[in-house]
Inverse folding.
């Protein structure tokens, strides 16, 4: 399932946010989107998801313009995984996942046996078998993020857009979530994930897109795109990529820290 974006522009009034964005995400790829706050990451996601439909340019999924698809057709193609949050009402984990199986848009929707089976399988797939009756608002942040991934899997879409899914998680949960996302990509899911952590992209992604002032500054393999120069520019902080594992991997460290050591 490939996504092709060509010459995408979007403005909030007179303020241009996206300025001529073009790229292709190949089926089964895991692509990380990086950029400073205000660079246009959330706006780009919102345009793809048709939350902001008044853009200029083309957004095609498998050769079809997303703007021409109705809500149900888009839901069959793309699932959105936001940052975990605590809802006002304490739905059970099963109920949260079952929300993704509703395809007719009716407020009177009652999940059938197939939907229940799909939801149970999705929770099991992310390691949460036995969590069905637990309150979504009462589990940990990492567990809530897994429930949201299970909800996306239950939706049946093979293209997953993930908005900083590890932003509020501890290191262990970050690695568990990203390892699972890597596995999904290896199974054929197409992943488009935003992050503020270059190390995550270096460890897990197939490719990286760097946004800077509403434009793509660089795109390609993580080890080619995430250079000291590029990262220093987009984040306004002098950083260095430090090799480890005999030069097979790199980690990103502020230059000031290196000077002090």
């Amino acid at each position: 399932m490939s996504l092709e974006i060509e010459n995408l522009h979007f403005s909030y009034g007179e303020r241009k946010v996206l300025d001529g964005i073009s790229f292709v995400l190949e089926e089964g790829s895991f692509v990380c989107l990086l950029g400073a706050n205000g660079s246009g990451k959330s706006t780009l996601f919102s345009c793809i998801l048709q939350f902001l439909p008044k853009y200029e340019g083309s957004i095609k999924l498998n050769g079809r313009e997303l703007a021409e698809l109705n809500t149900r057709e888009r839901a069959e193609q793309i699932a959105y995984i936001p940052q975990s949050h605590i809802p006002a009402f304490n739905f059970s984990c099963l109920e949260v996942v079952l929300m993704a199986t509703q395809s007719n848009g009716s407020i009177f929707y009652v999940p059938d046996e197939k939907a229940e089976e799909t939801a149970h399988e999705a929770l099991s797939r992310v390691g949460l078998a036995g969590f069905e009756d637990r309150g979504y608002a009462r589990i940990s942040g990492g567990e809530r993020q897994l429930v949201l991934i299970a909800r996306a899997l239950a939706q049946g879409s093979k293209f997953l857009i993930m908005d900083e899914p590890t932003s509020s998680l501890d290191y262990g949960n970050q690695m568990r979530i990203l390892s699972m996302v890597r596995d999904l990509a290896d199974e054929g899911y197409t992943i488009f994930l935003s992050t503020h952590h270059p190390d995550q992209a270096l460890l897990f992604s197939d490719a990286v897109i760097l946004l800077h002032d509403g434009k793509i500054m660089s795109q390609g393999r993580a080890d080619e795109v995430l250079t000291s120069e590029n990262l220093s520019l987009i984040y306004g902080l002098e950083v260095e990529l430090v090799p480890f594992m005999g030069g097979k991997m790199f980690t990103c460290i502020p230059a000031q820290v290196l000077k002090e050591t």
User: Anything to note?
Assistant: The chain has a mean pLDDT of 88. The two ends are 47 Å apart (CA to CA). The first strand starts at residue 3 and ends at 12.
